[in-house]
C-alpha cells in the first residue's frame, strides 16, 4: 500500500481501492468469458470446418446456418449486441447488472469472432495429413481430437490471444450497461465527473492487462509450434 | 492378395464426366512388389486410393486380403484399413508429434496399450534405421528420414499390404535408392505385399517384380518387369523403358554418327538375365569378317535379373550375316540405322 500512497500524491483524485476492484472485475469478466469463448468458438469453428464441402461432415444446410449465425453475430456492434441481449441475460441470470451478467453477451459476441479464426486455423492443416489418418483407419472423433486440434493448436492459441484482447475492450463497453470494471470506472468516475487522472490510470491498467495477455499468448504459441 | 474387377472411377465435372480409372481388372499376388507406372493424369493415383477406399469407386469391385473393400463401411472399413499401410509423396506426418509419437499414432487408433505401443515403436524405429531419433520432431528431419517415419508408421499395425503413393517422388536420387532398398528389405523380411505407383521407370526397375503401365485410365500393358524391359509392346511402355535404358544424350550422340558414311549399321542389342554376361561381341568378331565398335552400353539390375542394352555399329563385308547370327541368339536386335 505504501507505493500506492506515494502514487496518490500525483494522482490524488484516484481512489485506488475502486481502481483495484474495477481491475478485478475486468479480469473476472475477461477470464470467465475467455474460457467460454474458447470452448464455444472451437465447437463453432469445428462445425464450420467439418460441414464445409469435401470435409468429414459435409452438410450444405448446416454449414449455411452456422455460417449465417457467425456472420450475423460478428457483424453486430458489441455495444448494440449487449442492449439487444438484455432480455436474454435477464432470463438466463435474473439480472443484467454486475460483471457476471456481462458474460453471456461477451461470449455471444466473441465466440463467432473466434470461430472464424478457428475455421481458418483448421483449413491450414494439410489435407494429406487428414487423408493419412483416414487411411490408418481413424474415426472422425479420433481425427478431431488427435489430428485437427493438436495440429492447429498454435494457431488456435494465437487466435484466442487476439480474441482475449478484443474481449478486454468489450468488457469496457459492457461497463456502460452496469457490468462494472475499468471501462465503467473510466467512463463514469473519469469522464462524467471530469476526472482525467482516473481515465488515464484505467487506460494504463487496461494496457498492462493487454500486454500481459499478449505476452502469455506469444510464449504459448512459440512453445507449441514444432514446425 | 489384391484383385480388382471392372474397377472404374468417374469424376463429374462442369465440362462433363472425366473417367479417371476405366474398368480395370488386375490381380496382385501375396508377397510381390507390384508397380503401376504412368504419367500424371493416367489415373494411377485414383487407382491406388481406391484400394483402401480413400476414393470410392463408381463401379466395380476391390478385394484386399480376402475382404471386399467396397462393401464395407463405418467400423468395418476402419478395421480393414488398419491392415493396409500407406505412405505418401509428402509423407503426411503430424508435425505436432515426435517421431515416436507419429509411429504410435496408428497404434493409438487401434487402441493398443501404452506399454505395447512403446515396445512396437522401438522395434519399428530400429527397423527403419532411425535409432536415437525417436524424440525428434518431423521438422528436424531430412526428407528421407521423414519417409522412413512414414514407413514405420505404415507398418505399425502389421499390415498385409503396403500402398506407396509416389513415395520417392519428392526425394533426391540417392535418398530414393535408400528408401527403395528399405522397401525391398521389408518385402523380404516381412513377406509384405507392396503396391506402388510412380512415374519413374527407375523405381520399377529397381524393386518391382511385376508392373502395369497406365494410360488414360486403362492398363495398357502389364507383366514381369524383365519381360516388359525386354519386349515393350506399347508406345507408352517403350517410352518408359527408354527412361532407364537410354540416357537422354544417347539419341543426339548417335544421330551425330549417322551422318558419318563410315558408320555402317547401327544396332541396339538388348540382353536379359544370363545373356547379359555372354561374350556375344567376341563371337561375331571371330566368326565373321566385320568390324564392331561399341557406341554405348549399360547394364541395369532388376529384381528378377540383369538387363543390358548396347549400341554398336557393324561394318565389313559380312555385316549382314553377323546381324542374322545375332538375331538367332537370345538377344533382341533392333537396327536403328543403315543395314
From TrEMBL, chain B:
GO terms for cellular component: plasma membrane. GO terms for molecular function: ATP binding; ATP hydrolysis activity. Gene3D superfamilies: 3.30.70.260, P-loop containing nucleotide triphosphate hydrolases. It holds the Pfam family NIL. Keywords: Amino-acid transport, ATP-binding, Cell membrane, Membrane, Nucleotide-binding, Translocase, Transport. Residues 2-241 form the ABC transporter domain. GO terms for biological process: amino acid transport. Belongs to the ABC transporter superfamily. This is Methionine ABC transporter ATP-binding protein.
Amino acid at each position: 500500500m505504501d507505493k500506492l500512497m506515494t502514487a496518490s500524491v500525483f494522482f490524488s483524485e484516484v481512489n485506488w481501492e475502486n481502481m483495484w476492484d474495477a481491475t478485478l472485475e475486468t479480469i473476472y469478466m475477461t477470464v470467465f468469458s475467455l474460457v467460454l469463448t474458447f470452448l464455444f468458438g472451437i465447437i463453432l469453428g469445428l462445425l464450420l470446418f467439418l460441414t464445409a464441402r469435401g470435409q468429414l461432415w459435409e452438410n450444405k444446410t448446416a454449414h449455411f446456418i452456422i455460417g449465417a449465425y457467425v456472420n450475423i453475430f460478428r457483424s453486430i456492434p458489441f455495444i448494440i449486441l449487449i442492449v439487444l441481449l438484455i432480455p436474454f441475460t435477464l432470463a438466463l441470470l435474473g439480472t443484467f447488472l454486475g460483471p457476471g451478467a456481462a458474460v453471456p453477451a461477451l461470449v455471444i459476441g466473441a465466440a463467432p469472432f473466434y470461430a472464424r479464426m478457428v475455421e481458418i486455423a483448421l483449413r491450414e492443416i494439410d489435407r494429406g495429413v487428414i487423408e493419412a489418418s483416414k487411411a490408418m483407419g481413424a474415426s472422425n472423433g479420433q481425427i478431431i481430437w488427435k489430428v485437427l486440434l493438436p495440429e492447429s493448436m498454435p494457431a488456435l492459441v494465437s487466435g484466442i490471444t487476439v480474441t482475449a484482447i478484443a474481449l478486454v475492450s468489450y468488457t469496457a463497453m459492457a461497463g456502460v450497461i452496469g457490468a462494472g470494471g475499468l471501462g465503467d470506472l473510466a467512463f463514469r468516475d473519469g469522464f462524467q465527473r471530469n476526472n482525467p487522472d482516473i481515465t488515464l490510470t484505467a487506460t494504463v491498467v487496461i494496457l498492462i492487462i493487454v500486454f500481459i495477455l499478449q505476452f502469455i499468448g506469444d510464449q504459448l504459441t512459440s512453445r507449441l509450434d514444432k514446425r | 492378395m489384391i484383385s480388382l474387377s471392372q474397377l472404374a472411377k468417374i469424376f463429374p465435372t462442369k465440362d462433363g464426366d472425366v473417367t479417371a480409372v476405366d474398368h480395370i481388372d488386375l490381380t496382385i499376388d501375396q508377397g510381390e512388389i507390384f508397380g503401376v507406372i504412368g504419367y500424371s493424369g493416367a489415373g494411377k493415383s485414383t487407382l491406388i486410393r481406391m484400394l483402401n477406399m480413400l476414393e470410392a469407386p463408381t463401379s466395380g469391385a476391390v478385394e484386399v486380403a480376402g475382404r471386399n473393400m467396397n462393401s464395407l463401411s463405418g467400423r468395418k472399413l476402419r478395421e480393414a484399413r488398419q491392415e493396409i499401410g500407406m505412405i505418401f509423396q509428402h509423407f503426411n506426418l503430424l508435425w505436432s508429434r515426435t517421431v515416436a509419437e507419429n509411429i504410435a499414432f496408428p497404434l493409438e487408433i487401434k487402441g493398443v496399450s501404452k506399454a505395447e505401443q512403446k515396445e512396437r515403436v522401438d522395434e519399428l524405429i530400429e527397423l527403419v534405421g532411425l535409432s536415437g531419433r525417436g524424440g525428434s520432431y518431423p521438422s528436424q528431419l531430412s526428407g528421407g528420414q521423414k519417409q522412413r517415419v512414414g514407413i514405420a508408421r505404415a507398418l505399425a499395425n502389421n499390415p498385409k499390404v503396403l500402398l506407396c503413393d509416389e513415395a520417392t517422388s519428392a526425394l533426391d536420387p540417392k535418398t530414393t535408392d535408400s528408401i527403395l532398398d528399405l522397401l525391398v528389405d521389408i518385402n523380404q523380411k516381412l513377406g509384405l505385399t507392396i503396391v506402388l505407383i510412380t512415374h519413374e521407370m527407375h523405381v520399377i526397375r529397381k524393386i518391382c517384380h511385376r508392373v502395369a503401365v497406365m494410360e488414360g485410365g486403362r492398363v495398357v500393358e502389364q507383366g514381369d518387369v524383365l519381360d516388359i524391359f525386354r519386349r515393350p509392346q506399347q508406345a507408352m511402355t517403350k517410352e518408359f523403358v527408354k527412361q532407364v535404358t537410354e540416357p537422354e544424350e544417347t539419341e543426339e550422340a548417335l544421330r551425330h554418327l549417322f551422318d558419318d558414311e563410315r558408320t555402317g549399321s547401327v544396332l541396339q542389342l538388348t540382353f536379359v538375365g544370363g545373356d547379359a554376361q555372354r561374350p556375344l561381341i567376341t563371337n561375331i568378331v571371330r566368326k565373321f569378317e566385320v568390324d564392331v565398335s561399341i557406341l554405348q552400353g549399360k547394364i541395369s539390375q532388376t529384381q528378377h535379373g540383369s538387363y543390358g542394352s548396347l549400341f554398336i555399329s557393324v561394318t565389313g563385308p559380312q555385316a549382314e550375316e553377323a546381324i542374322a547370327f545375332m538375331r538367332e541368339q537370345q538377344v533382341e536386335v533392333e537396327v536403328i540405322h543403315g543395314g
